[in-house]
Amino acid sequence: MDKTCCPQYAIRCRSGDFKMNKSHKKTVKMVHRYINQGLKPGEKTEEAAAAVSANTKNSSKKNSGPENVTKTEGKGGQEKKHLEKCPTPGKGADPSKPPCKKAKLRRLEKKQEKMAQKLQQGDVPEVKQATSKEAATAVPHKVEKGAPNAPKSLEELLAECTVENPVHKLEIKLVRSCPRSQEFESSFKESYQIYKKYQMTIHHDPEGKPTEKQYTRFLVDSPLQSMKIPGGLEHGYGSFHQQYWIDGKLIAVGVLDILPNCTSSVYLYYDPDYSFLSLGTYSALRELAFTRSLHPKAPNLEYYYMGYYIHSCPKMKYKGQYNPSFLLCPDTYTWNPIRQCEPKLDASKYSRLESSVEKADDNGRVTLEEVLILHDNQAMPYAIYKAIKPRAGNEAEVRQYAGFVGMKCAKRMLLYRS
User: Fold this and answer.
1) What's the CA gap between 53 and 57, in Å, rounded?
2) What phi and psi values does residue 28 have, to the nearest 5 degrees?
3) Which residue from 246, 335, 254 is spatially nearest to 288, judged by alpha carbons?
4) pTM for the whole thing?
5) Which pLDDT score is estimated for 220?
6) I want to staple 309 with a disulfide (CB 3.0 to 4.6 A). Which of 11, 21, 354, 409 is the partner?
C-alpha cells in the first residue's frame, strides 16, 4: 500500500449506530417524491406552479407604485420624459394585532400550553412559566428516542415510500446469484443489459468489453458457499443481487454478500436513464437498513462493508459520509474512526491509522513451525515438512506467506509445496 499512488483502506460502517445527514434525507425524499408523485428533481406539482405564478403576479402589482415623471432637455430644445417607478411606502405594523415575538419564545409558549393541558389531566408536575428573557437564554433540551419531536429513523423515512395510489410502483427483491436461483435466471438477460449500458455510459467502456462472460465472472460467480441455518435468516448466507424495480422495469442492481458478521456491498449498477434519482446513495441507505433488519435473527451481523476507501479519490471518498465509519490500519489491522484518520490522510496518502505507537499486529507474528503445508497430498505443519525436506530452502517464502495471510489463517489454510 505504501508504494501505490492511491492507497486503498478497507472501510465499514456500524449499521446499528448509523445516523443520516441532510444529504441522505434529501436523497430519500427525492426518490419517494418521484415514486409517489411522479416528480423529478426541480419539477413542481400543478398546484405548486399555480401558487408560485399567483404570488409572482401579486408581488409585481404591489411593487408597481406611482410613477415620477422627470423632464430633461435634449438636443434642439426638445423635452424627454423619464419614467421612474417609486415603491409604495409601507404602512408599518398592524396595531390591531399583537406584536411579533421571537420564534424561540413562540415555541416555548406553545410547549407551556401543552404542558398546562397535561397538568390539568394530572399527567405531569406543574411547570413554571418562563419570562421572555429566560426564553431567550433557554438551552434546547435533548430529544429522547421515541419523543414526538425526535428525528425520524432510517426505517421510518424509507417507510414513507409506501402510500396509497402512488404514481409509480417501487419493488425491491433479493435474489440469490450463486448458486443461481430461479428468480435470478428469469431476470439475467435484463440485468446484464443494464450492466452493459451502465459500463458503456458511466465508465465509457467500449461495446465489446462488457460481455456476458465478463459480467458473469465479475458479478455472478462467487467463491462463497450458500448456507441456511434453521431459525436463522430467511435467505441464508452467500452472494445475492438486490434488484430495484419501478413499474415492473428493472432499473438498478446492488451486488451484495451476506456473511455471519456483516453484509458487504460488492458493486452497484443502474440504468443511466434514472441517474437523476442518485441511486448510489439511495441503494447504500437501503442496504444499511437491510443490514439492520437482519440483526435480530443474526446478532453478530452488525457491520456494513463498503469495499475500499481512497482518500485522494473523490469518486471513492464519498464513502466516509456514512457515520460511524471505520478504516482498517494497514500496519496493525485495527479499526479506527474515520474522523480521527482524516487529518493523517490529509498529510500523507499512506499512513498508519492506529493512534497507539505501542500497538502491533498480534496476528502478524509468525510461528513458522505451525504454518500448515500441503506436500505429497498430505497436510502437515512446516516443522514436519522441514524434517522431510531439509534442503528445500523455501523458509523465506513460507515466512512471507504467513506474514501476508496472518497466523490465524496460516493455521487453517494449506500452502502447497512440492
Assistant:
1) 6
2) -60, -45
3) 254
4) 0.72
5) 97
6) 11
